[in-house]
Amino acid sequence: MSNEHTQAHASEHTGFPWKHVIGLVLSLILTFAALWCVTSFAFSPALIVTVIVILAVVQAFVQLFMFMHITEGSKVWQITAIGFGAFIAFCVVAGTLWIMLFAL
Amino acid sequence: MENIKHFLGNFFVTGEPMIYMADVAIVLVSLGIIFVLTYFKKWKWLWKEWLTTVDAKKIGIMYIIAALLMLFRGGVDALLMRTQLALPNLHFLDSQHYNEIFTTHGTIMILFMAMPFIIGLFNIAVPLQIGARDVAFPFLNAVSFWLFFAGAMLFNLSFVIGGSPDAGWTSYTPLAGKELDPGVGENYYLLGLQIAGIGTLATGVNFFTTIIKMRAPGMSLMKMPMFTWSVLVTSVIIMFAFPVLTVALAMLTIDRLFDAHFFTVAAGGQPMQWANLFWIWGHPEVYIVILPAFGVFSEVIATFSRKKLFGYHAMVFSMVAISVLGFITWVHHFFTMGAGPGVNSFFSLSTMLIAIPTGVKVFNWLFTLNKGKIQFTTAMLWALAFIPNFLIGGLTGVMLAVAPADYQYHNSYFLISHFHYVLIGGTVFAAFAGLTYWWPKMFGHILNERLGKWAFWVFMISFNVCFLPMYLVGLLGMTRRMYTYPAGLGWTSLNLIETIGAFGMGLGFIIMVYNIYWSARYGERDTTGDPWDGRTLEWATTSPAPEYNFAHIPTIQQVDDFYYMKKEGRQKEISKAPYKPIHMPNNSGVPIIMAVFFFIGGFGLVFEWIWMGILGGIGVLACMLYRSFETHDHHYIPVDEIERTEREAGRFS
């Protein structure tokens, strides 16, 4: 019988949340960089897509490290969660490409 | 002056007597509510006890009240449609009005009725079932509710201000694009869903964290109640599916508001990409509303069969399998787009595959019933009726999964009937079963069984009268979304029967609402906290549960531990003195204020008043900023208050 079992956010936070602020600023920069690259330059579509994908992947890592506690907690959970996420991302992206090609 | 007149003529929906009646009704009801609250001096009570609450149990009740209101709205839409189609060549509604009504019916029933109903049940049952004091993020939970509510209100506003969306609940481009659908209707759809969707996404995160992190000591994942398992799996699906909707809605919003071309052919966009993205979210969404329904039925069937649920592990694994497979079946919603035989074959196969784990679950329920001491309570009747009705919907679903045959069935009334059988026979029956089952836990009294059974029989029979003929009329060639039809096609009598069934369902709903009123006044009070002789932890506390849920968090030894607690007399330990102070979150007005800003911003964007959108956005950010610096966000319930509460409940020992 334990009464210590209380709210998950019970721990007191101390110090300025630098990690979150930097993460937010980086995310905003990366997002607007993608927009800027589309609206301000006349790149070829292939180049635009490449740049956007690179910016998106970088932002995914920024969020995983700055917001989503990827370095904390049990390894098994982290690997399962990332694995499932990668699986869904693969299904969505590969599936969409396959479907929208109207080739097969 | 002319300008103002012109503006108002476009701003308010004009020219339709039914809309004027609705205007009058809205004004009168609003005035009535304001009068009652003022006359009985209830404003402060409303604000302190409900609008600012972060208590999951109260948020759950608010979700369900909102869902019932939306069920009424969506139901009225349905009755208007069925009236229009009762006989050939009727002109009760014109084609534009009919388009608007089937669009709002579908959107409201899925997003603003089914979703809040099941999320309401999450809030009521999950923290109690796992022996927690609240959800992991109570403040965020309130934000979720108020965002849903703001989104729902924004969407519902459309029919009196500006005009309703009219491109179907699927809002397919190019029809929903600016070129073919100017005006604000589709903007309401996009913004309303976007705001509510953010709330739902937060709910997914919240309940996933709650279930992973806050279970009572001893309750390993494989000792959780089945409803909690279904919510865990659903939360995962929400977290992975809803971002796709968010992105798709944002893209179409940018197309419509800022002249981008994601979905317009003219500048290299792909209109069919919308259908693709919509269903990448839309198919998992189907499982988001059906898996918790399976969870409710698992609880209800086990409780009223007086047996342990058959095949616990098989139930869990089939749900996990469904959550994975649910992400690779989406093309079956648009086989006829003609992506190609390879694509259609793959998605045809994956769709049939997902029927297997679902079938496993059906057998588990049947084996749970086998040799059980079955009690035919109202909740159990809904659960028992679910099995055959859902089976009809499921099997016709497998028929639709056959891609070549789907070219015949697609968008016919056969399809309409199929998804109403799974959504009503599954989700709505579960909502009613769950409502009846957990009602005592919510309000401390039992819903009248006699009225409940009347409502059940009237609704269930009428449901079949309404939807069974739709399979036939669909096979006879009637397609969805046609606003009228000529005589002499052999559709007339079937349509008339369907309309009679639809009004029967309305009658069933009225009996249900009357039952709520009757039971609140005269219903049997639940003084035990365990009116059904339940098997899971929510029945271990009082009805309704105190703010802190349990005086002591129980230690769990096995599945259905409460059943064994009662046998071994361990359940008294939950309320045994001495107590320790209990740590609880504070109420907050920020969520509702933030939702108001979301509403203002959303409304601005609907009318393309960018300044108003920015204003709303600033308000939202200001609320977040304020919350970031709020340090007094929790309190301790002192021991004497716990003692008083437990004593009043007759549990102090």
Automatic annotation (TrEMBL), chain A:
Annotated membrane topology: Multi-pass membrane protein
InterPro entries: Cyt_c_oxidase_su4_prok (IPR005171), Cytochrome_c_oxidase_bac_sub4 (IPR050968), QoxD (IPR014250)
EC number from the UniProt entry: 1.10.3.-
UniProt catalytic activity: 2 a quinol + O2 = 2 a quinone + 2 H2O
Regions that span the bilayer: 21-41, 47-67, 79-101
Subcellular location(s) per record: Cell membrane
Superkingdom classification of source: Bacteria
Free-text function comment from the UniProt entry: Catalyzes quinol oxidation with the concomitant reduction of oxygen to water.
NCBIfam families: QoxD
Family label: Belongs to the cytochrome c oxidase bacterial subunit 4 family.
Full protein name: Quinol oxidase subunit 4
Native species: Scopulibacillus daqui
Taxonomic lineage of the native organism: Bacteria, Bacillati, Bacillota, Bacilli, Bacillales
TrEMBL record, chain B:
Protein origin, superkingdom: Bacteria
Occurrences of domain Cytochrome oxidase subunit I profile (ranges): 41-557
Pfam families, sorted: COX1
InterPro entries cross-referenced by the UniProt entry: Cyt_c_oxase-like_su1_dom, Cyt_c_oxase-like_su1_sf, Cyt_C_Oxase_1, Cyt_c_Oxase_su1_BS, Cyt_c_oxidase_su1_bac, QoxB
Catalytically driven reaction(s): 4 Fe(II)-[cytochrome c] + O2 + 8 H(+)(in) = 4 Fe(III)-[cytochrome c] + 2 H2O + 4 H(+)(out); 2 a quinol + O2 = 2 a quinone + 2 H2O
Keyword terms, alphabetized: Cell membrane, Copper, Electron transport, Heme, Hydrogen ion transport, Ion transport, Iron, Membrane, Metal-binding, Oxidoreductase, Respiratory chain, Translocase, Transmembrane, Transmembrane helix, Transport
Cofactor(s) needed by this chain: Cu cation; ferriheme a
Pathway membership: Energy metabolism; oxidative phosphorylation
Topological type in the membrane: Multi-pass membrane protein
Enzyme class: translocase
EC number: 7.1.1.9
Residues annotated as transmembrane: 20-40, 61-81, 101-126, 138-161, 188-208, 229-254, 286-304, 316-335, 347-367, 379-403, 415-439, 451-476, 496-517, 584-603
Main location class: membrane
Subcellular compartments: Cell membrane
SUPFAM superfamilies: Cytochrome c oxidase subunit I-like (SSF81442)
Family, similarity comment: Belongs to the heme-copper respiratory oxidase family.
Function: Cytochrome c oxidase is the component of the respiratory chain that catalyzes the reduction of oxygen to water. Subunits 1-3 form the functional core of the enzyme complex. CO I is the catalytic subunit of the enzyme. Electrons originating in cytochrome c are transferred via the copper A center of subunit 2 and heme A of subunit 1 to the bimetallic center formed by heme A3 and copper B.
Name of protein: Cytochrome c oxidase subunit 1
Organism: Scopulibacillus daqui
